[in-house]
Amino acid sequence: MDSKEQWQNNLKMLRFRKDKFFKSNDDSPIPIDQRERFDGLEYYEPNYDLRFILELDELENKEPIEVNDSAGNIRDMLIWGAFHFQVDGTDCTLQAYKSRVGENRLFIPYKDETNEEETYGAGRYIDLYEEKDHTEDGKWILDFNYSTLPWCAYNENYACPYVPPTNWLDAKIKAGEKNYSFEKLS
Hints:
Strand content: 25-35%
Helix content: 10-25%
Radius of gyration: 17 Å
Shape: globular
Number of domains: 1
Distance between the termini: 43 Å
Structural class: alpha+beta
């Protein structure tokens, strides 16, 4: 398990790499005409209290769900299970999804009380991978500091899954990426 200092350094390095990718990579969602002025994303300060080690209440029989996306498509996913935790005394539950059986990624889209004002109105995402976020004792590291905006927040050419209402939290998650402002590039 990483020390708090190592965790913070890893988070800073990931953010640095993401900003570099967004500024210069051909696959960046930042529109080409804005990349020269792009000087990085805005993030909440790292908050170790919004990093949880949790058991996934995995469903024995995975339930299919249809999730609409920003382009009007329907995406078929499986409800894989749910995480239960508390933020500032508020009980929270987030469902975790997979696109198919055998996928090694859990997709956790969510909305919280920071949407619209501080973070993207349509919500944020967390991806968990078995090789890095699954502990030896079978738990998962659900770290909201790694919350990202969907790529459609940066560019309307991307189609992003909407957050199912079951993953709307009645808590403020002040961690991860903040709203992206095109005005600051002007």
